[in-house]
Amino acid sequence: MSLRKQEQQQRHRRARQQPIIYEEDISNVVLPTKPTSVPAPAPQLDTCLDVISTALANPNTALLRHVFFIAEDKSKFVSVGFFPACGYQPLAEFGGAKKLSLLLNAQQLQTMADNIAALYNALATNEQFSTKDGDFKMNSTGSYRIARVYIDKQFLSFTYEELRNRACIMYMIQNQVTFFTAAMNDVIAYIDTAHDSVTFVEPPSTAHKGINYYQLFEEIKSVLTALNTYSVLVCACVY
Fold first, then answer.
1. Range of the domain at 179
2. Is 12 contained in some domain?
3. Do the Cβ atoms of 93 and 79 come closer than 8 Å?
4. Total structural domains within the chain
5. Which residues have C-beta within 8 Å of that of residue 113, sequence separation ≥ 6?
6. CA 120 to CA 161: how far, in whole Å?
7. What does DSSP say about strands 146-151 and 154-159: parallel, antiparallel, or unpaired?
8. For residues 190 and 223, what is the distance between their CA atoms, to the nearest angstrom?
């Protein structure tokens, strides 16, 4: 092989080994920016505590709840219990499936008891009836045999049959609220004593005898466990 031909083959081999460079205008190319090393600020602890306080103030949380159904299909009910969001005050909750609840105190229950017979008779004869006590009101409506109970602008509707059932158990609801009211101070004192304990705490000998303290203790632990789990999930961002 001639020397000239060898030189040509070597030039071809070097050409194949060198990368091909294409010229390109990159003036308009947006290069990726370097990630910042500064982490996003975590929410303040006060914000997390506000969320936990909101959970504690859940108006639907009740202790030692007793439930009375006023609809045959159990879609509407009245329950009586101690409501932590209201200072553990015993209240009667009127509610139903997929409906907002109304919380009535002892005075509003008394107004209802004093007038429920008149409202029931008005529905029976398709007449108008209305009574009011502060934010509490109940009245017949333009619809046939339908009554409404209001707390401010929030209301629940009741049929003639549901109102009759409620009238029949009205004394039971009032008696339960009266009973719980008499035990309220002892219940609050027990909760204050037992909420940090992992085992059952015996109530003092002077505590109200009609309260099931075993059930109360279990409900306290259940509520606090749920709230503690919630607080951990919410406040993990602080760390």
1. 52-235
2. no
3. yes
4. 1
5. 170, 171, 174
6. 9
7. antiparallel
8. 15
Q: Is 173 helix (H, G, I), strand (E, B) or coil?
A: helix
Report pLDDT for 145: 87
Mean pLDDT to the nearest integer, 222-226? 72
Fill in the amino acid letter for 188. I
pTM across the whole model: 0.70
3-state secondary structure of 110: helix
CB under 8 Å to 35, separation ≥6 — which residues? none
The Cβ-side half-sphere exposure at 110, using a 13 Å CA radius, reads 6
Helix (H, G, I), strand (E, B) or coil at 13: helix
From 125, 124, 123, select the one nearest 139 (Cα to Cα): 123
Q: Give the integer Cα–Cα distance in Å for 133 and 140.
A: 16
Residue 126 lies in a domain: yes
Please report whether residue 212 resides in a domain. yes
CA 149 from chain centre, in angstroms, equals: 22
Q: How confident is the model at residue 7 (pLDDT cuts 50, 70, 90)?
A: low
Measure the CA–CA gap between 170 and 117, rounded to whole angstroms.
Answer: 11
Around 233, how many Cα atoms within 13 Å sit in the side-chain half-sphere?
7
26 domain-assigned: no
- 95-133 residue pLDDT tens: 987 778 999 999 999 999 999 999 999 999 989 999 999
